[in-house]
Design a protein that fits this description.
CATH topology of the largest domain: Rossmann fold
Radius of gyration: 24 Å
CATH architecture of the largest domain: 3-Layer(aba) Sandwich
Helix content: 40-55%
Order of helices and strands: HEHEHEHEEHEHEHEHHEHEHEHHE
Number of domains: 2
Strand content: 15-25%
Largest sheet: 7 strands, mixed
């Protein structure tokens, strides 16, 4: 073999791996659009991954995920959604409530969307109906935004002598108006006064708790909102510091030291979203996948926090609890 033949052989060999790589099919890409933050959702990302795994997909092996987190700043979501659509992604998994789902819906009418929201997807224009969504989006509605009256009633049972209860809402949340209307109607029905507090920044959360302390408001209900989820530890710490009983919407708050929570299992919702995302990757159409809703709502009571507050949990309420943290 002469020198020229040897060099030619080496040059050809050097291109083999590149050619082989070029012939390999590209992995599908899931666009992850979340209104929350990675710090407070690690367990939810894991649940989503378990759902994907059940239908044959493992991140890094046969599917890729592009993550985008709004950190509770909803105005960042439209640009993030547009960026993922330009990528382009195979499926958009929008989680963290209505803000992410609506941003995804506005960004594309063709790429399939799997959402996790707290309200009614039909009213939000995300689905034609629960059984037959009809468009390019489907997912899970965990009903958190519709449970404000029930949470207010449970909190009243915890502090039966309270004449006024505070309600903390985020005016930037799409469900704000309906949440406010629901708690106002619920309060009238049980002859209760509510003190409405609004917060969409850390400073406003601090100010809300100062108002509670100065006004001697005996209890607080924190409305379901992804922004508040990203400030979970802050809310729990302020409740402890001001010694105020607080009702939350997810179990994670009670586990973190919050007094009580009532709502759906959010981990189960993310797991179902992973299953739906995998099914769409396998060829199912979102228009044919019914919107899922929880079959069980959980009442979680942190007895250790109750004792620290000097609060006696009514025996009937304690008996109804799905979990008591001691």
């Amino acid at each position: 073999m002469n020198r020229r033949e040897f060099i030619t052989l080496l040059g050809g060999a050097a291109t083999w791996p590149l050619a082989a790589r070029a012939q390999q099919p590209k992995l599908p890409v899931i666009g992850w659009l979340n209104a929350r933050s990675p710090d407070d959702t690690a367990h939810l990302v894991a649940a989503f991954g378990r759902g994907l795994g059940e239908v044959g997909f493992v991140e890094g092996q046969n599917v890729m995920i592009e993550y985008r987190w709004a950190l509770g700043q909803y105005d960042r979501l439209p640009a993030m959604a547009a960026e993922l659509v330009r990528r382009p992604v195979t499926v958009l998994a929008s989680a963290g409530g209505e803000p992410a789902a609506l941003a995804a819906k506005a960004a594309t009418s063709t790429i399939p969307i799997v959402f996790v929201i707290g309200g009614d997807p039909v009213k939000q224009g995300l689905a034609a109906s629960l059984n037959r969504p009809g468009g390019n989006s489907t997912g899970i509605s965990i009903l958190t935004s519709t449970l404000e009256p029930k949470r207010l009633g449970l909190l009243r049972e915890l502090v039966p002598r309270a004449v006024t209860i505070g309600v903390l809402l985020n005016p930037n949340f799409p469900q704000f108006e309906s949440q406010l209307r629901d708690v106002q109607e619920a309060a009238r029905a049980i002859n209760l006064q509510i003190h409405v507090l609004q917060a969409s920044t850390n400073r406003e959360i601090d100010a809300a708790f100062e108002t509670i302390a100065q006004g001697r408001i005996p209890a607080l209900s924190v409305a379901a909102d992804p922004f508040f989820d990203t400030r979970r530890d802050k809310l729990v710490d302020l409740a402890v510091r001001h010694a105020v009983p607080v009702m939350y919407h997810f179990r994670e708050f009670a586990v973190a030291g919050g007094l009580v929570s009532y709502g759906a299992d959010i981990s189960d919702a993310y797991h179902l979203a992973g299953v739906y995302t995998g099914r769409i990757l396998n060829g199912d159409k979102p228009a044919d996948l019914p919107v899922q809703q929880p079959t069980k709502l959980e009442l979680i009571i942190n007895l250790k926090t109750a004792k620290a507050l000097g609060l006696e949990i009514p025996p009937m309420l304690l008996a109804r609890a799905d979990e008591v943290i001691e």
